[in-house]
Amino acid sequence: MASAVTCSATDLLPHLGGSANATAAAEFICGRFTAVSEYLTNTTYAVDNTYLLFSAYLVFAMQLGFAMLCAGSVRAKNTMNIMLTNVLDAAAGGLSYYLFGFAFAFGAPSNGFIGKHFFGLKEFPSPSFDYSYFLYQWAFAIAAAGITSGSIAERTQFVAYLIYSSFLTGFVYPIVSHWFWSGDGWACASKTDGNLLFGSGVIDFAGSGVVHMVGGIAGLWGAFIEGPRIGRFDRTGRSVALRGHSASLVVLGTFLLWFGWYGFNPGSFVTILKSYNDSSKGAYYGQWSAIGRTAVTTTLAGCTAALTTLFSKRLLVGHWNVIDVCNGLLGGFAAITSGCAVVEPWAAIVCGFIAAWVLIGLNKLAVKLKYDDPLEAAQLHGGCGSWGIIFTGLFAKKAYVNEVYPGFPDRPYGLFMGGGGKLLGAQIIQILVIIGWVSVTMGPLFYLLHKFKLLRICREDEEAGMDLTRHGGFAYLYHDEDEGSSMHGFKMTRIEPTNTSTPDNHNSRSVVV
């Protein structure tokens, strides 16, 4: 926020001489200064809120990316189901976050564990928060729920999605965000009372832990309790690939997520009109520069992870796989999200390189343990998110840490940057408490859903596909047909629900590709 312009007629009067009109002139001039000051203050609020709203729109657009990625990663017979669950995450999450979630996360003043104000946005807006901030944080909350839905895709009852999504966005996720992002949170790096964990607090700038680990660990428990999809492992325990039906949708979803990440990471600054008053760099340098740097580090980490995955998988399996590259790219983004604002661009390349190998290694471990996650969500978001938290404790730069988290010039920073191991210790604490909290909340929830037979669909429905058995018909059907030539192609037909065994040719549309 820009400093207010102040003016006192008493201070100005001696400079105007002793004329009879001096007092009136001083009051007039100060009145004009006050008007200008109020205008600049209002403009700053307007610019910052517009910036935050635009960032919220970008993060919300990631829901479309999740939807496309999920749709392409599952088999065609479950397309309508996975698309509906993505809509449900946003809709159910919107109400639960409005009623409870935001209050639990940011309801200050409160204790270090949970917020206790702003239920149903009561007393909103306030000097601390405006409506744009709620919208931005809601978009983050539903992103965590979207991650979980990918882990349990193709075998989960619809009612289970509704229950877990509301619980995750209304309670589990908000508690974690309170711990690390609220000024009252016990591990927040910008804690208002200055009593920082290990003298530094946890630096999780945009949510490698708060968002990605929470969604990934929740998905891990859901997929573990449900068990693998039918056919994922044969009777001998050998892995059988159940490939998604559309690489095109996967690539489209990946690019949409990439685009949205520029709201996710740079947008986490919340404001843009802020000068750092760094005389060594001049007036051109301010928070707007840090926002640009954050976008660069985000880009470099994702690009490095994508290329590392491309060549690594070529050496390991012998071919170039676009699905693996897309997942590697997203793994790099998930990792850099924690430290994107406090590391140098070259360090982001290191982050992305290691994130790719973390994802490859965890995928191999998942196969050995017969763990089935159709979108690799637990490995990608949970595993790469954990690496990103550790990476921040190693590579956070002192100057950037003091810019983003001002007020404590002697706080610890990255171990490899000469800042000691206290920040790394705080980061490790974050990983442990997130794993513990999500496990003791989401684990029992999924177990109870399983015990009450509300979690997994029956075998017959799973084999036939949920689009047909639960949603009235297939989104589309792929099959080979001979169209009277030597070329065999895919024919895509939209199937309408019918009471006869023969589709009505007048009510279906087909395109030969």
From TrEMBL:
Q: Does the keyword Endoplasmic reticulum apply?
A: no
Q: Which PROSITE patterns match?
A: AMMONIUM_TRANSP (PS01219)
What are the recorded Gene Ontology BP terms? ammonium homeostasis; methylammonium transport
- Quote the protein name from its UniProt record: Ammonium transporter
Positions of the region Disordered? 494-513
Q: Where are the transmembrane segments?
A: 51-74, 95-114, 134-152, 159-181, 201-225, 246-264, 346-366, 378-396, 428-449
Instruction: Give the subcellular location.
Output: Cell membrane; Membrane
Write the gene name. Answer: AMT1-2
Compositional bias of type Polar residues: which residue ranges?
Answer: 496-513
Please provide the record's keywords in A-Z order.
Ammonia transport, Membrane, Transmembrane, Transmembrane helix, Transport
Recorded family membership: Belongs to the ammonia transporter channel (TC 1.A.11.2) family.
Give the molecular function GO annotations: ammonium channel activity
Q: In its keyword annotation, does this UniProt entry include Transit peptide?
A: no
The membrane-topology field of this record reads: Multi-pass membrane protein
* One term under GO cellular component: plasma membrane
Please name the source species: Nicotiana attenuata
Q: PANTHER family from the entry?
A: AMMONIUM TRANSPORTER
Task: Domain (Ammonium transporter AmtB-like): give its ranges.
Answer: 51-476
Q: Which domain of life is it from?
A: Eukaryota
